[in-house]
Every structure is written in C-alpha cells, then in structure tokens.
Design a protein that fits this description.
This protein has 406 residues and is of the alpha+beta class. It contains twelve helices and 22 strands. The protein is 30% helix and 26% strand.
Length: 406
C-alpha cells in the first residue's frame, strides 16, 4: 500500500455496513433477473457466483480464462491476513476466510493453507502495526505480539536486525489464487450461470441506463443489470471517469530455490511473512515446492496489462537477492528458479471501488484492488451482489464520490 494509503488506512474509518448481518441476510428472490458480469477474477467471479445463487440469470464474460496469466488474480498464491488499520478490511478478511474455508468443504478442493502470517515491524512501519493490532483487538481477531527474543526463538532462520516487534496471526495463511478462480467459476456454472469467452465493452447509454454489452465478435448481450469487474482493463473501458482514479503498476514476484532437503524455509516451519520497513517486502515459504516466494510491495512503474512483456528486470532481481541475503541469510546466493510480472490496479487511498456509473444506474463498476484485493473476493462478492440487487450503494467508502475527495 502506498504511504498515503497506509496513513489513511490507519485512521480506522467507521464501519457503515455489517458483514455479519450481510452474511445472514436473505437476498429477496429475483425472477430470472438478467445480469451480465464482465471479468472472472476474484471480484467478478465471486460477484457472479453470489448473483447466480440469488436466483438471477447471470452471464459471466471473460476475455481469456479465470485466473489467466495477465490478470491481477492470476499466479499461484495470495496472502490472506487481517492486520489492517481500518477495521472494515479486517472484518472483510475474516468473512472471506470463513467463505474460503466453507468453499473448501463444499467443493472438496484445497484453497487455503493455514501457515499463519507474521508481520515484522521496523521503526518506519511501527505506526501501521500499532493501528492494525488495535483493529484486531477491537474486532476480536486473535494474534500474538512478539518481541525480538520471542521471534528469534520461534523462527531462527530469520535475521531480525532492525526488527522491533512482531505480530503473528495464527489463523491466517495463503490462498491458491489461480485454482480459486477456477473453482469459483465451476461453482458458478453449477449454480446455473453461463460463461462466455470474449472481450466485452459497454453499450450505449440511453435515459440513464445501459441496455447491452458488445463483444469483439460483433454480438451484443442484453441484460437488466451490468457489473464490470475487469481489473486493470477497467480504466481503459471508462477512461473519462476512471483514468483519474485508477493507476496500474507493474509488480515483480520472485521464487528462489532452497537447498536440497531444506525444510526450514517451507510452510511447515515458516509462516507467510511481511516486513514493514522503508519498503514493504513479503513472502510465502516454499508453497507447493515451487520455491521461496518474495516480492516488494512498493508500487512499480505503469504497465499495459495486455501488451506488456512479462520479463522481470535485472535491477528487481538483484534487489530481491540483496533483501533475501539480509533477512534470510541461509538463502544467500540461492538460485532464481521462477519469476512473474503482474500488476496492481491502484486507487489513491487503497480503497476499493463499488459504485454505479453516474450516467447509467444499472451499470456497476467494481475494482481498485490495490494489491490487497484478492483475499477480499468472497466478502466483496456478497457486497456487490446485494448492491446490484437492491440498486443502491451499500458501502459509501467504496463510492466514486469518496475517491474523488481522497
């Protein structure tokens, strides 16, 4: 999260809607209400699934495939954690984790690895850690506050130079990202939804509504309501409205090989971790034996999500090597075994966008994942479904007006 976003998140914006009550609410039946959802990533997929389960006639349109390589929801893994300065996101993460765990049981597919998540706080990140633990206490979410001695005793493979405290969430961990996207789409199909492959663009606006979307093959798809949740492609489809609010940044992910027989750096002995210093580094240990994953969360340069080459930079790899040698010294000199280039679709303050288009009340815009959105997919899908079916904004903090005033 950008520094400004970090500061705003620490302010703890009050909750306007209750995820607990939302989860228990019964959405009024809809008599085959036709809804089109564009984008099968974390936001669009869970939205489409919730709408289909409500009884709506839902078509999910995806240009490639759920969790494809160029999507913000692609790749192997994503962190799910609860440490947020804003309690809204802590509660959303808690609700989403419960929905992921329920999905595992219902679909008989493993999506969540409960490794725990460790936050290591340096002096420059102390404010965020302090605000985040206050939100965890307020929401009754368990955590352990650890001093450097306790950290060294539990995880001797970490060099704690500069670390002043640690926060460990034992109930958190990581999600299988691409696999989750596919599982959600399959559940959507079982719920009666239809999936179409094609590039969708908005149709014409008339009398404050939009009647259809246009596919690249020339066909149109009509509906009563529309949801565009297409990540980094969203500002290109609505440039005048969203170009000022959404910026897409290039992010690099690295996987380093651990020594043969090494178990100290896999998920059995090391949790998911994040290091809050001048830069925010995070990592996932040995996920599915793919390698030791690390990434710099600092926002990168702009990227075209469709045309950009996905080759990692020499400077980025060397920076990751330097960090790895400093914090995990046993992996100094470890070979790079894989690397990925993805993107974040960022709002200025890190908050999501869920709102109606100002010129078409039946057109909903959903995006701004800002690098932390994947974990919130299930809870956000509930929120968007209720917003669409009730025709009103449920969470003002995600409104376009909120972002224009940010």
């Amino acid at each position: 999260m950008q520094r400004r976003a970090l500061l705003q998140a620490m302010m703890g914006v009050p909750l306007v809607w209750s995820l607990d009550s939302l989860a228990q609410a019964t959405i009024d039946p809809v008599s085959r209400r036709r809804i089109v959802v564009v984008g099968a990533g974390a936001f669009g997929g869970w939205t489409a699934l919730n709408l289909a389960r409500s009884g709506a006639d839902v078509t999910l349109i995806e240009a490639w495939d759920a969790g494809h390589t160029r999507s913000s929801s692609g790749g192997e893994t994503r962190v799910i954690r609860h440490l947020y300065g804003n309690p809204l996101y802590a509660r959303m993460a808690r609700r989403s984790l419960a929905l992921f765990q329920q999905a595992e049981q219902d679909w008989n597919e493993r999506l969540f690895h409960p490794t725990g998540v460790l936050f290591m706080g340096q002096a420059t990140g102390a404010g965020y850690v302090e605000a985040g633990t206050a939100a965890l206490r307020d929401e009754g979410i368990g955590f352990d506050l650890l001093d450097p001695a306790a950290l060294a005793a539990r995880w001797p493979q970490i060099d704690l130079n500069g670390i002043e405290q640690g926060v460990f969430e034992p109930q958190s961990g990581y999600l299988l990202a691409r696999r989750s996207c596919h599982a959600v789409v399959e559940a959507f199909r079982r719920a009666g939804g239809r999936v179409e492959t094609g590039r969708a663009s908005p149709g014409a606006f008339q009398q404050g509504r939009m009647s259809d979307v246009r596919l690249d093959n020339g066909r149109t798809v009509a509906a009563d309501e529309f949801v565009f949740a297409c990540g980094p492609w969203l500002p290109g489809l609505f440039p005048e409205l969203l170009d000022p609010l959404l910026k897409t940044s290039r992010q690099e992910i690295y996987y380093f090989g651990t020594p043969a027989g090494d178990r100290a750096h896999d998920e059995a002995q090391l949790p998911v971790w994040a290091d809050f210093g001048e830069r925010i580094w995070y990592g996932i240990p040995g996920s599915e034996r793919r390698g030791f994953k690390i990434a710099d969360d600092t926002r990168g340069p702009p990227i075209d999500p469709e045309r950009a080459e996905r080759t990692p930079s020499t400077a980025g790899i060397e920076s990751a090597r330097d960090y790895l040698a400093t914090r995990f010294p046993a992996l100094s000199g470890a070979p790079l075994v894989d690397a990925r280039v993805c993107q974040y679709t960022n709002t200025e303050n890190g908050d999501f966008i869920v709102d109606q288009h100002p010129e078409a009340a039946n057109l909903w815009l959903v995006g701004g994942g800002s690098g932390h959105g994947f974990k919130h997919g299930p809870a956000l899908g509930e929120l968007v479904a209720e917003s669409v079916l009730n025709g009103r904004i449920i969470e003002p903090m995600f409104s376009l007006a909120h972002h224009r005033g940010a």
